[in-house]
Amino acid sequence: MLSNSFASDASGIKNLVINKELKNYSDITFLNIKNKELNLNDYKGNLILLNFWATWCAPCKDEMPSLDLLAENPNLDNLKIFPINIGKDTSQKSLTFFEDLKIKNLEIYFDSPNTLAKKFKLRGLPTTILFNKDGLEFARIIGSIDFVDEKFIEWLSNFN
Fold this sequence. Notes:
Strand 5, helix 3 and strand 6 (about 110) form a beta-alpha-beta unit. This protein has 5 helices and 8 strands; from the N terminus they run αββββαβαβαββα. By secondary structure, it is an alpha+beta fold.
């Protein structure tokens, strides 16, 4: 369970929703750029951030550079970031999107045919889901956020 101190530290962080109860999902799979299936269970023990985006999403474009910078934060060395394209964009279009934004620390992933968008009941883009080291969802960010915001990094580092 999240302690109240973690929850109160999150006050003032735009678009952050902390779950009252931790959520457990089974079979969370997605694809890398080479179409190889990855399973989220293989990353237990890490703090995990799934960021759902699409090339046509303007707020996704705005937040992606800060997500890229978050990936190189030395205080979050246990954080694994998976930007998952759910816009049915091609690999080439996604690569061009990353190149145009000068994204250098992140890999591109794609939603699997099982569609995580449905599994997580996503309502809009971007949406970011945070999983603790036990693989349980503890928070979401609905909409865009500045991932290098000091308050956000301080709050997130509690889970690292």
